[in-house]
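Field log, afternoon session.

UNIT: design team B
ACTIVITY: writing a sequence onto a fixed backbone
BACKBONE:
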């Protein structure tokens, strides 16, 4: 047997009983409204086709991505795959289920942030591409020029929770 209990409360604002200025209506609640996607045009993003190997892990990751990343709101993406996400303008773009980076070979250095290992490609002066190398799928985060590693650091928690550790396998 399942029992569901719902409690509704009306919190009244104002002072105490002896205060003649006590408010009569509901108390005002401070804080910010829930984040929503930015009112930016959809960003075209190319993502590899969904495969049986990428579907489960990427679905799990996409379900936990934040609406705001490093103070940048998420924005819509235009893609044939559900495994792309973007924030801000210029955009920080996440793609899940990409191929192993060409530069991720034996002897290449990786950077570990909060337990997630990343290969960083700085060959293109217009972007810095960070790719996870220790998860069951490769997750790529493309940063525009001038953006530091804050978005990468912020996403390590979600990546570590959604995708289990896997021994890195660099190419030959």
């Amino acid at each position: 047997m399942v029992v569901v209990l719902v409690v509704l409360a009306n919190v009244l604002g104002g002072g105490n009983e002896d205060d003649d200025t006590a408010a009569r209506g509901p108390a005002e609640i401070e804080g910010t409204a829930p984040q929503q996607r930015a009112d930016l045009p959809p960003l075209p993003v190319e993502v590899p086709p969904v495969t049986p190997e990428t579907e489960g892990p990427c679905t799990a990751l996409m379900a936990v991505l934040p609406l705001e990343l490093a103070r940048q709101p998420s924005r819509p993406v235009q893609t044939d795959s559900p495994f792309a996400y973007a924030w801000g303008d210029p955009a920080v773009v996440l793609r899940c289920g990409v191929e192993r980076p060409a530069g991720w070979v034996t002897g290449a250095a990786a950077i570990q942030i909060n337990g997630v290992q990343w290969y960083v490609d700085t060959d293109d002066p217009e972007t810095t591409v960070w790719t996870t190398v220790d998860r069951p799928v490769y997750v790529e985060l493309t940063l525009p020029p001038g953006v530091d590693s804050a978005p990468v650091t912020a996403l390590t928690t979600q990546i570590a929770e959604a995708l289990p550790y896997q021994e890195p396998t660099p190419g030959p």
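LOG NOTE: The longest strand covers residues 92-98.
NEXT ACTIVITY: expression trials, pending approval
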